[in-house]
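COURSE: Structural Biology Practicum
ASSIGNMENT: Worksheet 4, Part C
STUDENT ID: 0417
INSTRUCTIONS: Below are two proteins. For each, the amino acid sequence is given first, followed by its structure token string. Answer the questions at the end about the second protein only.

PROTEIN I
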Amino acid sequence: MNNEHPEAADDWLIDDSAEVSGGKLQAPWRLLIVDDEPDVHRVTQLALRGIEYKGRGLELLSAYSGEEGFALLRDQPDIALTLLDVVMETDDAGLRLVRRVREELDNQLVRIVLRTGQPGQAPEQEVIVAYDINDYKAKTELTLQKLYTTVISSLRAYESLLAIERSRQGLSKILEGSANLYQMHSLREFASGVLAQIGAILDVGTHGILCVRRGAGSGSVALQVLGATGSFAEMAQHDELDEEHPAYPLMLQAIETRQSLYAYPNEVLYIPTQTHHEFLLYFTPPWPLTEVDKDLLEVFCSRIASAFDNLHHHLQMTRAQEATVVALADLAEYRDCDTGDHVLRVERWTARTAKRMAERGDYPEQLTRRFLELVGMASILHDVGKVATPDLVLFKPGVHDDSQREVMRRHASIGAAILQRSARMVEGQSYLSIGAEIAAGHHEHYDGNGYPGGLKGEEIPLAARIVAVVDVFDALMHRRPYKEPWSLADSLDYIRTRSGKQFDPKVVAAFLEVVGADYAED
């Protein structure tokens, strides 16, 4: 055996650049020669000169020991075929490398062809049975034609295995990505998820634009931009896709044909939904899509459509719930014209205060994303119980006597009862369940001196503690039948002095920050 390491000049490529087929970049197949004899490398390189398979040339890598071969296979997992000598630094160096590749690297894709100049050292039948190899050849029998046949058949097998593996990985990513899409709560979030998953399925950082055409069949071709990534990121700031943009005519073509358009480097996925929306995803992958890629993307498109329909129905139900909440609040406010936009201001201040508390790290177990989504809208139901308060009491311009005060206070319990009955029809947290907590608890005091239950501290639901501050502040700032509006300074002073007594100190702190920032902007 000749263990002399060859000069770097001997480590050359049959094809040192990617093939161009039909104007499309094609990466060469990568082959690794592992042999301690430089002459074997030279002969193999000469024998394989100019060979192509499916329009792709060969890139040859060289290693001169089992350890060198292992390092290359570890660092470059896209090697398709290894022509491996058995006897190198040890009598079984090649066999040991086979085991390490299959077991240590868990690389089941690379095709391994053993070549030996000393067949007696490793009997063919024993090796074929004991080692996961694809062929076993004596160097003397590898004529030019047989070497060609061995290489092409190995590449064909590698290509098939790679397609199966890509399909498996792609389907796994589709299932995982689709599950994430079903958890999206807005169209923008949905768009971001779709673009991210396309990149994951293709295993590239995709540059893309996702648009939607509402009301398919209406004749309108306005394409609303939902999201954009990569070199198209600035398009996310646009409401509609400009007709001058290169993607626009391609999307129109996909709409007209009602099918995806694959025209590398410009690809358009056409995704119709049952809710009469048409999604169009324009993206520019770095290389032409394989048939496996296209099949995976078509599967993902069907999942996108289902996920969007689910999101659409979710949003519609949410809007229906919000409409119901607004109707209930309007019913309570209809009789109380002096309160004006009180409930809308309460909604705004409540949502902003809750968000600020979450940013401060207050009550992290309660200030969940779901709570933050619901609490603002739920707050407008705080006085819904006033529908049962007699006009004589509700509109009295002066101070209530004891009996009238008792009647007035009943609105908290009445509102809670109304909302609790409705909330039981909805599973989990909802506008109604949080609204019921607010209605019942927004007149409770942090020190236990409030009504109707005399609850204290964190016995009072968090949503009610937030609305308690917001409701009093807004009442102080605006005219009521029994009082003139207070100044901002006096109103804030009152809130501060009641911290720890009437109000939760953490709520007060967050509220003062929000109000301070808001009035500073004004």
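PROTEIN II
(use this one for the questions)
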Amino acid sequence: MMKRHAVIAALLAAAPATAQQAADAVTTEGTSTGEFQGLGEAASAAMQSKMDGQPTEAQDWMVAAANPLAVEAGAEVLRQGGTAADAMVAVQTVLGLVEPQSSGLGGGAFLVWYDAESGELTTLDGRETAPMAATPQLFQDESGEPLSFYDAVVGGLSVGTPGTPRLMEAAQEKWGTAEWPTLFDAAIDLAEGGFAVSPRLATLVSDDAERLQRFDETAAYFFPGGTAIAEGDMLVNQPYADVLRRLAEEGSAAFYEGEIAQAIVDRVQGAEGNPGVLSLEDLRLYDVVERDAVCADYRSFEVCGMGPPSSGALTVGQILGMMDSFDLASMSAQDAEAWRLIGDASRLAFADRGRYMADSDYVPMPTEGLVDPAYLSGRAELLEGDDALPEVTAGEPEWQHAMLWGDDQSIELPSTSHISIVDSYGNALSMTTTIENGFGSRLFTNGFLLNNELTDFSFATHEDGYPIANRVEPGKRPRSSMAPTIVMEDGAPVLVVGSPGGSRIIGYVAQAIVNWADFGMDVQQALAAPHLVNRFGTFDLEAGTEAEALEGPLQDLGFETEVRDLTSGLHAIEITEGGLRGGADPRREGIALGE
């Protein structure tokens, strides 16, 4: 077991950190497959495929996620006849160990599920909730001014009630066939035997050194002996293994009641300098909500995903719905005119997102109106000029009341992880999972980090006299940009996709679908293509890629531009008549693996 883990560590060390490095890895002489000797043949081939810019191919099942150790855990479950829901538990528990900065037991997730037996599509909402003691002024100072982002994030104030453990259990109970305790074996073995610190984890720990050392238990894990963990170090996490054993034996109740729950509450309420209000009652009352999927028409497809409290499916659906009025297939991914249309459609969608989207259990939302084809066709008419829109405003989708909302003022920074799985039975799972900002609240207990999800709420409560839909309220779920997506055609799934990346998730997912559906790219090319993202007016162009060549043309069209790193983490599986094809983002460490 340790020999295999050491080989995977070498594999991770070879994984490119940026899109440019991905291109270099493909073109540089001397890139050797010898580094993968000793790894399973399929996993070696999967990493080599990614490095060569080719999709992974399989016939029966496939899993794509952000770390080879997690992918291997899920693959073993699928190999033994488990379902996508079973494999997700194994993948998530390993991800929470090997990339704790992105997701874990202390966070939440959104899951989209296609059930092959019934032909139905549904979603599970495992989003964190605001404590019952939270108030709309949670992130304001004594004078009513919003706190700065990191003043709110670091400590207990930002911690919402975690949803991931209960989501894992709910999904496995509904759609799993494996024995629940066996799904934790891989993560327990790695936690007790040690895993090699990946380059990405080591870099992020070093970059966040000051905040990670603010609390003693967090510092002790990530800075043993006062020195940051480094790439290749073997890291053991016995407390995490102990928690997983409890979950395996007792189910999610072991997390939400008793000693583990008490430790979470103590850590939150006792956070020096920034205590929170999470209580044992909040944990005891937490539940996962099954919700209808939100779907939008695009070409011959239905693009389906998570509805409120996520803005992901609605905003991706709006962008694509507006693009349905234009023939992108006659253009190319290097055409500034194509990006003018996509960029301004995104701006229009984000204007609606900022005005209307929040937890629909707490505020009325025009959900159907926002993706109504007639509404989106009308919004697309605004794009029929020949240069950038000078300004954008929220539209007026059809809905059943006349409530007025102020524009949202929340901040959403990138972290998170995404899992795509198709099993041998034809079920498909798309799940985006997070603790929000990298390393969440920086509070560490029982071997896992706690989320800072409450900072996805708007810090302000009103704007120009109107209440903000995404303001803090007790029990409410903060708005998210997570966009786990299943693209359907003729009633069956054809693409399973999603990404981390804060509010840029929406652009990453929409672009990947356009690349695949309109620009003729295969699933790996669609994920690796240079990013161009426009949310609020400035066009972000991915540094070190061909996107930089579009800076001048986009400026000529009237856009402001910024060249910057855009580190998505897209993972996708295409389902074809001839089998499965998977892709993994070259900007991260993951692979797609199948048989």
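ANSWER KEY EXCERPT:
Q1: The longest helix spans residues 336-356.
Q2: Residues 55-595 form one domain.
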